[in-house]
Amino acid sequence: MAIFKILVLLLSLSCFCQAQLSLTFYDQSCPNALSTIRSSIRTAISRERRMAASLIRLHFHDCFVNGCDASVMLVATPTMESERDAVPNFQSARGFEVIDQAKSAVERVCPGVVSCADIIAVAARDASEYVGGPRYAVKVGRRDSIAAFRAIADSGDLPSFRASLDDLSDLFLRKGLNTRDLVALSGAHTLGQAQCVTFKERLYDNSSDIDAGFSSTRKRRCPVSGGDTTLAPLDQVTPNSFDNNYYRNLMQKKGLLASDQVLFGTGASTDSIVSEYSRNPSRFASDFAAAMIKMGDIQTLTGSAGPIRRICSAVN
User: Which InterPro entries does the record match to this protein (predicted)?
Assistant: First the structure.
């Protein structure tokens, strides 16, 4: 009997070690999972087009802090600080309620089967597709975290809007992402909006890396004093459509954030990638999809390494 128990234990440990994400993870346990998520996400974006950008960003902010584990969704408790309250997320990260709604929809179909971490990853893909971006195959099978990691979120694992190219490159490298991944994922800023506080310095410091006309236009909504929370589109031309105009903007010194503009004009290797994407939207779309898949693999919990949270905002 003792030998049998040892064999069972070894088998279970083997299964744990070999657990991994797959495209077919829910085919048997919840065959309608992905279509249910997709329907919920499409409904949310049809109500507010900007939500597409927010959901893509939420996936990014989840994965870069201790891996793709839905820790970003957890609300603070007396014993746990929330990543939502970290400086890069506070009053900035959005889409939590959309993920909660998708989770509720999936729970009605398959209770206790689909993780919040998977829902965030799938939602980002569905958001991309809805606004004209690539539809790519999302591997699933993630488990959820039982803790949040605000200190990590505040310590530099999320890029600052003031980040230099070296800072960005080093951060992405630590996450297993290369320079091409950095430039491709930054292209998500073809969508969405930013608060004036994140780019106001660029408008008023007489920098040579910003187009004068572009700066003048932005100053109308972002005065030197006040208006910090006023929103401006990251791409002034097509802010609600996934396209490669972001890269054209960079080449014209019309990147809104300093951390965007550093990708072009410094003579670094990113210059040629920006130029390539500006000419070849198909290459940008395919590289963006590949980088999103790669990002979705960062430090995932699988097998028995974490639970399936019943609601995304709290541990079970």
Answer: Haem_peroxidase, Haem_peroxidase_sf, Peroxidase_pln, Peroxidases_AS, Peroxidases_heam-ligand_BS, Secretory_peroxidase
